[in-house]
Write a structure and sequence with these properties.
7 helices; 35% helix; alpha+beta
Length: 223
């Protein structure tokens, strides 16, 4: 019994150490050259919850043009009251079958802890108030924002050039789910995808950020 407890404590200590190292070792290790202060900048947002993060990018003319392929689905990209395009990546079973914590089921949790196909969740938002504890804002250049758009766009699975919506999947009237590239697991999940997206926009994250709290802390330290 004592041997089992010791091994459990060792495993917990190792996990805590890995998360700490993943948070405080920056990626990239060397800070990128910052854009000129006179350059035009755009606001992007990191939206975080207890276990998941999303990215919000301004829904301006350039973003609508970059994601015009969504217009071929029933996603309302041209909604007149929308100010932000919100994108998140995650495991198919957990994402689709757990719109609220009250609907948590055993099988989606098991799939999330092992391996699952991935999906992209796309939504719209109006005005987002800053500051908030679950909202982190960053200013990026036009070129950095363009690279972020490209990263997100490249995360969609395409069939004959068209993105693949998941029928009858969504939490509300506006949001939609789409087939995504890659596979989800607990070690490299939604928050590591968000971190990679932020790095594509020239921001620094931790080396490995499996939890929203670790990602939020690392981007606060290094940006």
């Amino acid at each position: 019994m004592r041997t089992g407890i010791r091994w459990l404590l060792r495993i917990v200590f190792l996990l805590v150490l890995l998360v700490a190292c993943g948070t405080f070792i920056p990626r990239p290790l060397i800070a990128p050259v910052k854009a000129s202060s006179v350059a035009v900048t755009h606001r992007i947002l990191l939206l975080s919850g207890p276990i998941h993060t999303d990215i919000a990018i301004p829904l301006d003319e350039e973003t609508r043009a970059a994601f015009s392929f969504l217009g071929n689905t029933d996603f309302p990209l041209a909604h007149p009251n929308a100010e932000w395009l919100i994108i998140g990546w995650g495991g198919r079973a957990f994402y689709l079958e757990t719109p609220t914590w009250a609907e948590l089921k055993a099988l989606p949790v098991l799939r999330a802890l092992t391996i699952d196909r991935s999906v992209l969740h796309v939504d719209l938002a109006g005005h987002i108030t800053e500051p908030q504890s679950n909202v982190a804002a960053f200013d990026v250049s036009e070129d950095q924002l363009a690279k972020l758009r490209d990263f997100i766009s490249d995360s969609f699975v395409r069939d004959a050039g068209a993105v693949v919506p998941i029928p009858n999947a969504g939490y509300g009237e506006i949001d939609r789910f789409f087939e995504a590239k890659g596979y989800f697991n607990a070690l490299f999940g939604c928050n590591t995808w968000t971190a990679a997206a932020l790095r594509s926009a020239g921001l620094r994250t931790g080396l490995w950020n499996p939890f929203p709290q670790a990602l939020r802390l690392s981007v606060a330290v290094y940006n």
